[in-house]
Amino acid sequence: MIYLDHAATTPLDPQVREAMLPWLDDAVGYGNPASDHALGRRAWAAVEHARAQVAALVGAMPAEIIWTSGATESNNLAIKGALEFRGHAGAHLVTSRIEHKSVVDTCRHLEARGVRVTWLVPEANGTIGVEQVLAAVRPETVLVSLMWVNNETGAINPIHELAPHLRERGVLLHVDAVQAAGKLPIDLDTTPIDLLSLSAHKLHGPKGIGALFVRKRPRARLAPQIHGGGHEQGMRSGTLATHQIVGMGCACALAAQRLATDAPHLAALREQLWQRLRVLPGVYRNGDPAHSAPHILNLSFEGVEGESLRARLGDLAISSGSACSSATREPSYVLRALGRDDELAGASLRFSVGRTTTSEDIDRAAARVLAEVGALRALSPRWGT
């Protein structure tokens, strides 16, 4: 199988696995990081080293990194935490219709509890413009929540340009950076983002561990969503999973080291695939190539039925969109928000390349797609009429 679904999850890097193994060993790594004895202090030191590694990837201070179980929890903590700390009464937040489901559903949850939500519609290139956001901001706006890179189309939102305007207005900015970390440079020391979500398994780390950046100065205040022993500065209680945290730290350190080489490698592979497939008539690229992350290519194929195409491409690990939305079996809400009709949105494929993808993989995958699209169109009574 050719794996082209790195936006859903990435294979564990061998160096990450080696870093994690000692913390799964009963002789070394079973201490609780909160325990005040030798084994606990050893685990605590490993956790803090990993915290510094994550902070370094995004230009933050280690004390601004809060461990979570993944980006879904980070998004929930950021959005619910900010609104609950301020109070729901009269509160307003701004987001978009093409966010990850963990943001969309969290905002709907708050909307049902009286928070007013403005749902922005993307521009034709799949991005949310600065002026759109600023026009939606009101005196009572508490938070703006936008993803840096759209997980289905790869479109890059203008976060660098937007953040200073929101800071001037005293509005918190939360950014889901899951698809941006390790692919784009992020420097929170110079970009005034208040809250930023990260996930290890999107950059060759383990599943089940993520982080939320919570700015110290000026301080972003959150109401905790998990109560217990007051861990993680009172924002996220629960015993820390040392082995997963060490894995995320190592993955972030590797991503920082490899950013300058990984990003152009991924972009070259993505463009190689596009050049191979654009020869097909009736193929549409979703998103703006000039404002796109290097690893994602989303295409709609006219004249084919999406489920049939994906079934015939069983030797390719690809998706129709976000893995977190796959249970609905409906056309992508992201592509529909971009103006694709249900048929084209349903006949779309998201290809996402990664560190382990080769040029040979791309050529083989492209040949398979060309063959199967051609075969399905030959069976369609409507194609070519």
TrEMBL record:
Stretches assigned to the Aminotransferase class V domain: 2-364
GO molecular function: 2 iron, 2 sulfur cluster binding; cysteine desulfurase activity; metal ion binding
Required cofactor names: pyridoxal 5'-phosphate
SUPFAM superfamilies: PLP-dependent transferases
Keywords, comma-separated and alphabetical: 2Fe-2S, Iron, Iron-sulfur, Metal-binding, Pyridoxal phosphate, Transferase
Domain of life assignment: Bacteria
EC number: 2.8.1.7
Family annotation (Gene3D superfamilies): Aspartate Aminotransferase, domain 1, Type I PLP-dependent aspartate aminotransferase-like (Major domain)
Top EC class, one word: transferase
Keyword Endoplasmic reticulum set for record: no
Protein name in UniProt: cysteine desulfurase
Organism annotation: Fontimonas thermophila
